[in-house]
Structure formats: C-alpha cells, structure tokens
Specification:
Blueprint: H1 6-65, H2 71-101
Helix pairs in contact: 1-2
C-alpha cells in the first residue's frame, strides 16, 4: 500500500535515460573539441616545419651566391644549416608523435 505507481517509476526511469543521453552528448562534444585541437596542433606543426625549411633554403641560396664569404665560412654555415635541419626534423617528429598519441589510452 502506498508504494510508487508504475507511472511514477516509468518517469524516474525516463529521467535516468535523459541524464545518460545528455551526459553522453556532452562527452561526445568534448571529444570533438579535443580532436579539433589535435588537428589544429598537427596543422601548426606542419606549417612551422614548412616555413623553417623554406627559410633555410633561402639562406642556403644566399650562402652560395655570396662572394663576400670565405670558403671556410660557407662550409661552417652549411654544416650549421645541416645540423639545424636535423634538429627541426627531430623536433617535428617528436611533436607529431606526441600529438598523435594524445587521447590514446595507455
């Protein structure tokens, strides 16, 4: 006597279902935001690498064209550019790996 009616219990079940659906929607929205951030980070990483490579190519051309630089200076600058290219590639690879591993369960 005096217990909850079927209708009341069905309403409670409906509220629980609504709460679960709302939470699922919120979580899916958060995942979408994280994926967008991840894609933006990858795009920025690519742009920075491309820009650095372009700038280094311009400097290499300037070194080759320069009549004022001694051969030893040209060689040192070329070696420095080579080191910098390797460093840029390594940093780019590290960042790209970190970004792609983000959100991956461990």
């Amino acid at each position: 006597m005096g217990g909850p009616s079927e209708r009341e219990l069905m309403e409670k079940l409906g509220k629980i279902r609504e709460k679960i659906l709302k939470t699922e929607k919120d979580i899916n929205n958060e995942f979408a935001k994280m994926e967008k951030i991840k894609l933006d980070a990858l795009k920025r990483t690519e742009e920075v690498k491309r820009s650095a490579d372009h700038d280094l190519e311009k400097i290499e051309k300037d070194i080759v064209k320069s009549a004022d630089l001694a051969p030893e200076s040209k060689q040192r600058l070329s070696q420095e550019i080579s080191l910098l290219k390797n460093e840029i590639f390594q940093r780019y690879t590290d960042l790209k790996t970190r970004i792609t591993r983000a959100l991956t369960p461990r």
